[in-house]
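Structure, all two chains, one model.
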Amino acid sequence: MKILTCIKQVPASSNVDVDPETGVLIRDGKNVKMNPYDLYALETAYLLKARSGAHVHTVTMGPPSAADVLREALMMGSDGATLLSDPRFAGADVLATAYALSQMLRRIGFDLIICGKQTTDGDTAQVGPEIAEFLDVPHVSYVRDVDLRDDKTLRIRTVDDRHEDVLDIKLPCLITVDKDANTPRLPSFKRKRSTRDIRIETWTLDDLSDKEATHYGLRGSPTQVESIFPPERQATGRIHSNLENPGKTLFDILVEQKWLRGD
Amino acid sequence: MTFSTVNRDDLKAFIEWFGGNNVLTGDTIDEEYAHDELKTVHRRPDALLKATDEAAIRRLLAYANERGIPVTVRGSGTGLVGACVPVEGGVVLDMTPMNKILDLDKDNLTLDVEPGVLLLDIAEHVEKEGLFYAPDPGEKTATIGGNIATNAGGMRAVKYGVTRDWVLGLRVVLADGTAMDLGGKVVKNSSGYSLKDLIVGSEGTLAVIVKATLKLIPAPAKAISLLMPFSSREAALVAAPKLIAHTTLPTAVEFMEQDMWKYSESFLGKNIPHDEHAAYLLATYDATTEGAVDEIVECASAFAVDKLDAHDVYLIDTDDRKQSVWNARGAFLEAVKASTTEIDECDVVLPRSQLPGYLSFIQDLSESTDLRIPYFGHVGDGNLHIYLCRDDLDEATWKEKTAIAFDAMYEEAAKCQGLVSGEHGIGYAKKTYLRRHSDARQLELMEAVKTAFDPKGILNPKKIL
């Protein structure tokens, strides 16, 4: 069985820079980490690998520095990795991203594609299901458990706010894995050594079968960002109750915050 | 020594100095003030005073000294040896209201704080300025005053030392109400006996700390932890000193066996990765540049796998990963407490090389006394945390078995050139063992120091000695 896992490098903190003209996140490879949801997707793949001997290949789309998260996946348990990177993909929205990835995944070939439920930068949870639609394979989101029922069928448990489903799904298919589905393993030093010689190939638009540049990146994205701004911070309130002298307390607070002079 | 109990006139005076809201008596005193976190020592104070300012504390001490009223200083009450319990009654002086961060001096790299400031607030305050207060005791809601009074240690002691190494100056009020400054914003000091260092670790028996000047350093750029599984306890413990001696000093080296992870996992309801091994070292490295940390980690990992027989080395490099492993590590005490009906603890400190033999002894002791004795350790600094679990024992059997076990543990520690407490202090609970395992002349000197500072013995009586 061939499992493909899709992962993404995301900002490690919420203080990010945005290009003021395009409204697109500036990704410079600094202060970044693997999308936390992807850790659960990878662990799901490695658990299946342990049971079935599957081959796990991991892909990402991003700037050249995104190869770091692929190296990390190799340290955790992936057998191979490919980076999709081309300036012509820059500024892709969810649809253009899913389209580019689907082109790549089709060419690599798969029985099962596993994605994290969502990323912590975009938060849309759409790329996984959209890839499946482009590839015309069935897909299930919010996955918690996966097992092989036979060599053509997966048994899957999904959980959302209201209910839990147990489903059988035919391969090839795509699943997106929810947070806390398992305990993701840590990157291993021994694997770092043993995978050191694995070459991470970089693919560009020229490696995909649809080579029409306007189908990708900002130009291939129906989403147009009009403006982008940080959400207003809620001022934090203080509640004072059972006060002997509420007027005095208020006066003291105003003095303390220098709205009034205390003298 | 007989002490006076707090009477109506005393209360009137306290109210005048501290204000009516800050003086409590009888049932208005929360039960919490009668014990510490471990609850093995119990006594209610006659009066609870909420500290407001130095002037009130000076008047209180001058008065209590005159009247012979015991004064026991208390921080957050997170101690484990009964040090903050007023075993002779009298006044408990709660320092938590004095919780202002007074001054961050960026030229001298110092932080002036009142004693009631919490450890977590210090970390937050200095880290946003790119600075670092290195001592890192597990209990982040402890006050800095309490930390200084016990000379708290914590996880980063291997590289950065303990609280004493980070206290440059103290302002204290003596038993007779005199206030004075000891040490100061100076890096060096060879000006006579270091009274400041005597106050650090004196558990409220010599003076009341009303202000502290802490040392700061520029914050490390990054810290990375490494989880190293081993096939046995011995393999992990033999590896620890070698790892520490290898090229770069780690900030922390923690040791745990699989059972401790399991306690934590069931307490937190969350698994840690790679929990299937017999024993572990958890080491942390930091440096002033990210590249330097990566290099150190690479070098330490190769050494652990190639030379120390570590099964593998797992990288804990992101906040999520740090949380999953360190939260579980941080929950050990609570997890052991939750696994049983009552615990008692021992925090002996030994030369690192003695740890394998000592822990084999603990295993044997657990079998011979038929007591469950989980433990873990800051192996980097030789400080062990050993817990006796009561489980379903009746009161009499529990008392009997703990006495046997403690006697044996401290006896064996002494044989291994160890000391009674690494970081929890002596307080009330460990007095017997300090006395038993200290040289008589040394005890005399300690007693003389106590008398010099507090001739009438009103400050935290019956503690340490």
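The domain at 222-333 of chain B is CATH 3.30.70.2190 (Alpha-Beta Plaits).
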